[in-house]
């Protein structure tokens, strides 16, 4: 296995250990949480967190400080997908070629499963922070936690989802669509990168560079999704950037965003090319 494969296996084992519950009266909501959390997701966001940390951390092969943050990010992402699929939002029947959570566990349980994952993300981080003894580690952990929840709140992911469900197709323009992408998808991807840097002890000026890197790849990633979903029907009520740009123009913009993301890393001392390699595959999925 590659180093990335080993890291992914380590993460999945850690994530699995967080949901080892005995049978209980509330087991159905726990089963529902696990159903979506282990439904075949690519773990893109936690891998960005782990790889960024790996690039900049001085602690060889130690991921104890970063795994709780990677897990919290994946739980937040998964909760957003469960809620996104609900009838009140996108009303989807399938995700990753499997029935959506509410189709298996009912709308009520699916809603609670999303709530449970969001709450558990905070429980994991607070438990981790409570056990930190080093003052600098504690400060970095609090900063990282603050960054995650700012990125996923009403000025981030939730805000983007609001635009997505509140605006009719006829009300959209290119700028609104791009802003929705930056909030709904890009904010958590950017946070995934930045948090890895914060916990690794990256200085403030270089965190700014990582933020720019994360912002660019977040937008490029969503544009790649648009290319993969180019057959979407405008009458479906779902919007994408191909409503405003030609396919070749969007491909060129992805190239520009990718180049800008790599330029943002100039001057940073990277241990290896795992992060860049991972990103290159991530934003070339339609090729």
TrEMBL record:
Cofactors demanded by this protein: Mg(2+)
Gene3D superfamilies: Farnesyl Diphosphate Synthase
Assigned keywords, A-Z: Isoprene biosynthesis, Magnesium, Metal-binding, Transferase
Keyword flag Membrane: no
Annotated InterPro entries: Isoprenoid_synthase_dom_sf, Polyprenyl_synt
Keyword Magnesium among UniProt keywords: yes
CDD domains found in the cross-reference section: Trans_IPPS_HT (cd00685)
Family per similarity comment: Belongs to the FPP/GGPP synthase family.
Protein name: Polyprenyl synthetase family protein
High-level lineage: Bacteria, Bacillati, Bacillota, Tissierellia, Tissierellales
């Amino acid at each position: 296995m590659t180093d990335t494969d080993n890291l992914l296996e380590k993460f999945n084992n850690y994530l699995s250990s967080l949901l080892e519950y005995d049978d209980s009266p509330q087991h159905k909501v726990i089963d529902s949480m696990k159903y979506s959390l282990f439904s075949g997701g690519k773990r893109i966001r936690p891998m960005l967190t782990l790889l960024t940390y790996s690039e900049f951390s001085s602690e060889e092969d130690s991921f104890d400080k970063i795994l709780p943050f990677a897990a919290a990010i994946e739980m937040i992402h998964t909760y957003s997908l469960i809620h996104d699929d609900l009838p009140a939002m996108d009303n989807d029947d399938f995700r990753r070629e499997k029935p959506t959570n509410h189709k298996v566990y009912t709308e009520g349980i699916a809603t609670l499963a999303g709530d449970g994952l969001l709450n558990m993300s905070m429980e994991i981080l607070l438990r981790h922070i409570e056990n930190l003894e080093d003052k600098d580690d504690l400060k970095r952990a609090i900063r990282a936690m603050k960054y995650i929840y700012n990125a996923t709140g009403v000025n981030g992911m939730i805000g983007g989802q609001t635009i997505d469900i509140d605006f009719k197709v006829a009300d959209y323009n290119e700028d609104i669509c791009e802003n929705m992408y930056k909030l709904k998808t890009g904010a958590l991807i950017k946070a995934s990168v930045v948090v890895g840097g914060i916990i690794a002890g990256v200085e403030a000026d270089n965190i700014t560079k990582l933020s720019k890197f994360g912002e660019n790849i977040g937008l490029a990633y969503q544009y790649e999704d648009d290319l993969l979903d180019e057959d979407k029907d405008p009458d479906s009520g779902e919007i994408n950037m191909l409503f405003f740009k030609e396919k070749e123009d969007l491909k060129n913009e992805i190239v520009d965003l990718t180049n800008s993301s790599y330029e943002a890393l100039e001057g940073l001392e990277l241990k290896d090319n795992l992060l860049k390699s991972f990103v290159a595959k991530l934003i070339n999925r339609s090729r």
